[in-house]
Amino acid sequence: MSDQPTEQPLPYGRQWVDDDDVAAVAEVVGSDWLTTGPAVEAFEEALAQFVGARYGVAVSSGTAALHAAMHAVGVGPGDEVIVPAMTFVGTANAIVFEGGRPVFADVTADDLLVDPASVEHRITARTKGIVAVDYAGQPCDYGSLEEIAARHGLPVIADGCHALGAELNGDPVGTLVALTAFSFHPVKHITTAEGGMVVTDDEEMAGRMRRFRNHGISRDFRERATEGSWEYEMVELGYNYRLSDVHCALGLSQLKKLPGWLERRRELARRYDEALAGVDGVEPLRTRPGVEHAYHLYVVRLDDPGRRQAVYEHMRGRGIGVNVHYLPVHLHEFHTRTFGTGPGLCPVAENAYERILSLPMFPAMADTAVDRVAEALEEALG
Ligand SMILES: *Cc1c(COP(=O)(O)O)cnc(C)c1O
After folding, report:
1. Ligand 1, from 96, 140, 159, 299: best to mutate by most atoms within 8 Å of Cβ?
2. How far apart are CA 112 and CA 135, in angstroms?
């Protein structure tokens, strides 16, 4: 697995599941509790502890985690929530699920993190919260964002789906704001196949999100079984966003390997930095001072956006799974149709979109694969 032959296709990201993971899943799948059982709590506690937060609420995806967070801060019809344009669609959709309107903020050109000045510019009397996205695995400028949010009495919610294990000035993502959402999709840092979690220090918000993931019902099945009672009450509209014990067993097993995988991602990034330093026409995104990067993605910007398509095709032709993260959300058809967004709203994100490429980055990737990617990129640009 660690030595990729040159001709083998190289994806941009890939999970790493070993025999221990399979054994952990097998044990739980043969146990009494397939869902709402002890593995859920164990995974929640372990992940919360890893990031230094008090509570974890496991849900069925990263998008469900963002949705639960929007619910927890009370987003409702007519509310606006500020969200960076440069993100996965799920970040903005979570706002729409609760009847809110995503208001897109622009990013800074050299790191594609949300620009606090643009956020402040978008605040109105209807603003209910600010969502920040730790793009590629680098924490945003939470100092500035929290300062702006505090002045306007708004919560900041972190979409940390790229940034499990990242730090800002020594503080882990998961402790920087009131609510942080993570995803355990196979391309992310650890996987549960599908899954997500919100971490928080706020007991009341954690309780609200637990209820939300279980149809809005005040007590779950295991609590009722423990109490010997059949009674339950649905006190608000919720969803079935539960993450099963089978998924959580995989997550718990994967979490043990996370520190080593983060180290490996950082090593690969250093190798990319060195290999690309001598290549004209391409530049990696900037890492800010005080940041311990988690490198979900390794993103480069081409000087000439006119060459992006050809570079993309050349790399793909050589079996190298480059990708583009992301088409700015406000340019997606649903959003333009529903909210009247379009080109010109976030010019920095729109310009960046024309020139970015995500290069392969996953812990099982070999050093030689980095060299192969750098060579192919040099060839494509030569
Ligand atoms: C992966 C991702 C999500 C959504 O996670 P899913 O588990 O796929 O629902 C949300 N935001 C960002 C930035 C992501 O990368």
Report:
1. 159
2. 7
